[in-house]
Amino acid sequence: MAKSTPQKLVKLDGRTGEGGGQLVRIAVSLAALTGTPLLITNVRGNRLGKRNGGLKAQHVSATKWLAKITSAETNGCFVGSKTIEFKPNSLHPYTVDRDIEIDADSASSILLVLQAVLPVVLFANDTAAHPVRLSIKGGTNGSFSLSYEYLDQVLLPTLEIFGIYVERQLKVRGWSHGPLKLGHAEFKIHPIPFGQSLKVPNLPTERGSVKEIDISILVLETLQKPLEDALTKHIKQRFPEVKINIILRENTHRIYTLLVVHTYTGLRFGRDWLYDRKTKVRTPEDISAEMAEKVVEDLVSEFEKGGLIDEYLQDQLVIF
Question: Which GO terms describe its biological process (predicted)?
Answer without folding.
Answer: RNA processing
